[in-house]
Design a protein that fits this description.
This protein has one helix spanning about 160-165, and strands spanning about 5, 10-15, 15-20, 20-25, 55-60, 65-70, 70-75, 90-95, 105-110, 115, 115-120, 130-135, 140-155, 170-180, 190-200. It has about 200 residues and is mainly β. Strand 12 (about 130-135) and strand 13 (about 140-155) form a beta hairpin.
Length: about 200
């Protein structure tokens, strides 16, 4: 299964921020455990090891920051190396990665801002450990994730292995631009790490 890597600081969006180009990685032998955040899973959010079968992500809900809307399905651009980017007001799910509830990281990306105002992930860095994130699948199941870590990285120190390497359980990565909004200045990324805690039919 293809997994996307974000190369930060490569694409200026409306002159306001940066959401880096994405490319497919070469085969890697990185152990799955290397991508797991160092934080301990909250006691109220036990780790669920068993993954679901494949079904596309169709809706994202993050109650703590007021996100509730349909997802764009993102693939690769014509160059087969960079990932398509979503509309500023909608988050996008990378369809060549894990679907919600499948074993491995499910990748959702979104903008922090645009020329028209705040993006869908403008408040992503306000999430806390233990916050709930829900992804509805095309088959009607809702996969619930618990947030393990919210991290901000500069454009030069984005930890691609930690973010995108395979995991032994269903996990989540929410990724957006972060940092100060200075015209023409590179921005880093806010990354939310989560793990599956429940599935609702």
């Amino acid at each position: 299964m293809a997994v996307v890597l974000i190369v930060t600081g490569a694409l200026t969006v409306f002159g306001l921020g940066v959401l880096g180009f994405a490319r497919t990685p070469k085969a890697t032998s990185t152990p799955p455990s290397s991508s797991a955040p160092s934080t301990t899973h909250p006691a109220s959010h036990p780790l669920q090891q068993r993954g679901l079968t494949r079904s596309e992500a169709v809706r994202l809900t993050i109650p703590a920051i007021g996100v509730d809307g349909g997802l764009q399905s993102l693939g690769l651009n014509a160059d087969r190396k960079t990932m398509q980017l979503p509309e500023p007001a909608r988050a996008g799910w990378y369809k060549q990665g894990a679907t919600p509830g499948e074993t491995g990281p499910t990748i959702v990306v979104g903008y922090i801002t645009s020329q028209h105002g705040p993006g869908v992930f403008s408040h992503l860095n306000a999430l806390k450990v233990g916050s709930r994130v829900e992804l509805r699948r095309a088959d009607g199941k809702v996969v619930i994730y618990g947030v393990d870590q919210v991290a901000t990285y500069t454009a030069k120190n984005f930890p691609t292995t930690k973010v995108y390497a395979p995991t032994q359980a269903p996990t989540l990565r929410l990724i957006t631009c972060g940092g100060l909004l200075r015209r023409g200045a590179p921005m880093g990324n806010v990354v939310v790490y989560g793990h599956q805690v429940a599935v609702r039919s």
